[in-house]
Design goal:
Blueprint lengths: L20 H13 L4 E5 L7 H13 L12 E5 H4 L2 H11 L11 H10 L6 E6 L18 E6 L1
Parallel strand pairs: 1-4, 2-3, 3-4
Helix pairs in contact: 1-2, 4-5
The structure holds adenosine-5'-triphosphate and magnesium ion.
Length: 154
């Protein structure tokens, strides 16, 4: 069976990802253990491999079978610093990948909230890459529910 989970991951530029098994496991455990929304933050110096770690974590789940994968309601990658329009990126994912009817009018925050309310019911992973300031994502975070798992890459 072809797996049809929605995901919009960028391509990795490296042929082989090595030596981060512990970091990958730790990230997974952190994301699974929360009873409410789980937000894991990856910080560190520029170029140390934060974005790649988040991406490899997502790719690993994408490449599992539907039975074995953790994020059955998809993985949404939001590129915060490069594109800025965080809310619009979420709306686009919801519309194009999840086929959610997005609200045409209203404040962006409310239109994004409407998407979260209509998101798939299983676990979903949202990755905010390159967040410089918390206020860039604050108004667009998912609902306070266990099924939403967030990685914030700073
Ligand atoms: N474990 C790894 N094995 C091989 N290459 C890696 C690994 N981790 C990261 N890289 C490569 O190193 C480079 C820098 O990694 P990355 O872009 O993830 O850093 P970053 O911490 O997100 O940096 P920035 O803070 O500038 O966003 C990338 O080309 C990435 O593909
Ligand atoms: Mg990065």
């Amino acid at each position: 069976m072809v797996k049809k989970n929605p995901y919009n991951l960028p391509r990795s530029g490296i042929p082989q990802f090595v030596g981060r098994e512990t970091a990958l496991e730790k990230l997974h455990i952190q994301l699974q253990e929360s009873e409410r929304i789980a937000i894991s933050t990856l910080t560190g110096m520029g170029g140390i491999g934060k974005t790649e770690l988040a991406l490899q974590y997502a790719l690993t789940d994408r490449d599992k079978t539907l039975e074995d994968c953790s994020y059955k309601s998809g993985i949404c990658w939001v590129n915060v610093a490069d594109q800025g329009n965080v809310g619009t990126q979420i709306l686009n994912f919801a519309q194009n990948y999840l086929k959610i009817s997005i609200l045409e009018e209203g404040e962006l925050e409310d239109r994004v909230k409407h998407c979260w309310q209509n998101w798939g019911e299983e676990d979903t992973l949202i990755i905010f890459d390159d967040v410089r300031q918390y206020k860039q994502i604050k108004d667009f975070l998912p609902l306070q529910q266990k099924r939403f798992k967030v990685i914030r890459v700073c």
